[in-house]
Amino acid sequence: MLSMLIVEDERWEREGLVELWDWSELGIVIAGSAVDGVDGYEKALQLQPDIIITDIRMPGSNGLEMSRRIRETLPDVGIIVLTGYSDFHYTREAIMLNANDYVLKPLEEEGLRATVLRVAEDCRQIKYQRAREQRLQAGGRLAAEKLLLDVLEERDAGGDILAELLAHDPLFAASLFSLSIVVPGEQIGLASWRSLLPSSCYVVPSGKNPASWALVLPVLENGERWDEASLLEGAGAPAVVLVIGGKAAVGLERLGETYRELLETAEHSIFHGRRGFVMPDSLMAERLLWREAASSFRAEWGELCQNLRQHILNLREQEAIKAVERLFELLRQHSGADKAYITMVFNSLFNELASLENGQLHEEGMAATGRMDGKSLYEIQRLDELNRLLHKYISELIQRLDRKKNRKDDYIVEKAVKLIEETYGSAKLSLTMLSSELFLSSNHLGVVFKKATGITVHQYIMDVRMRKAEELLRQTKRKVSEIAGHIGMSNQSYFCALFKQKHGMTPGEYQELMQR
């Protein structure tokens, strides 16, 4: 549907035009009406109609003056001027300069209808052409950004990249380019970013760091450069988390080298939780300070880690948490330390803490391979995330040590149950095997287990195996012999006898019943 604005100072003529036809049959909806040229201009800017029908003679601002002003802002709007015969000879040239067509008064419905349909079709063609141009422009922009990513990541895309870029945008003929990396907040998307930036600025999603975008801007011949810092003010915090600015404009052939340097600065800044505007030179200065302070850092770090271990062994959780905060405060004072070094010292710390459980590493915590909660330390992108994970690990570690020290029997039973759940498929699973794994005598484990659960270890193992078998029979079509082997019972006859004793039917009958 096209929208239309009617501008007429005579009320009865204005209302007559609104009610003249069922405009929807012509593919038009009346967006509004105005009483004179001044009102018409304001309504046009507000409603942005596709078509305007206006009288030529009106108080304040006549139809031609209004049309001229509207054209300056809405060049594609279709304008139909209504003029009396006496005015026509004097104003024909002005009408054709500022309007698409005209209709002589008194109005004839068929003549007006034909004119409206003709102008409406012109408007549709213009809208189609504009949409097509925008699609082509957007497609060309995306293609240029893909080529720029090849340039930034120094990939040989084949062919003459500069020639291909010039085919998309003549501005790539510039001898210098401004390059920055932006880490946006979650509140603003790529489309919104583009609306904030000059049309000559290309936004390239980083292939190496999905959380960041590279901004490439050709420097104009007069040397005018885009001010990266103004982006923070224009977008408004916290939409912009971080802007890494280039030291100077560089040629197209050096964009890859500069990009590597900026990306390294961005990754370091993200890890340390930096915000705002950052220059690579500041990172170099921080690293120089770190080299000078590394020795004293290691000594202080070692002392803090020793205090942390003592608090954990003594089950003083609040003191342990305070010790963790001092560790991270120390790291914040040495922001030049890179991620690889910090990850290494934390990996050592986690392994030391794990040894407090006599080398018995738990899935809730850190394994010797450097994994915590199933996530490698080297995959962590932010120091704050490492802080949260360490707090969680220490809290759980103290709980386990407390159970081991003050509720030893409960701890033993929990370990035994966990081992049974993990190894029920092993034919070797028995009281003897569990005792060996837990460094206990079989007699002691058997007594403690029955006291806590009310059944023997053997009975518990059989219960777990029957439960697992029942799940497999209900959910799969595996053979009974396969299921028996899967739950650690190589003697199929024994398995079938136990199953029938528990469920009142054979495994095969149960499977058929459940899957009927």
TrEMBL record:
Pfam families (UniProt xref): HTH_18 (PF12833), Response_reg (PF00072)
InterPro entries: CheY-like_superfamily (IPR011006), Homeodomain-like_sf (IPR009057), HptR (IPR051552), HTH_AraC (IPR018060), Sig_transdc_resp-reg_receiver (IPR001789), Tscrpt_reg_AraC-type_HTH (IPR020449)
Protein's cellular compartments: Cytoplasm
Gene3D superfamilies according to UniProt: 3.40.50.2300, Homeodomain-like
Entry keywords, A to Z: Cytoplasm, DNA-binding, Phosphoprotein, Transcription, Transcription regulation, Two-component regulatory system
GO cellular component: cytoplasm
Response regulatory domain sequence ranges: 3-120
GO molecular function list: DNA-binding transcription factor activity; sequence-specific DNA binding
Major localization listed first in the record, in broad terms: cytoplasm
One of the GO BP terms on file: phosphorelay signal transduction system
PTM annotation (4-aspartylphosphate): residues: 55
SUPFAM superfamilies to which the protein is assigned, alphabetical: CheY-like (SSF52172), Homeodomain-like (SSF46689)
Domain HTH araC/xylS-type: 414-513
Classification via PANTHER family: HISTIDINE KINASE-RELATED, TRANSCRIPTIONAL REGULATORY PROTEIN HPTR
Protein name: DNA-binding response regulator
Species of origin: Paenibacillus oryzae
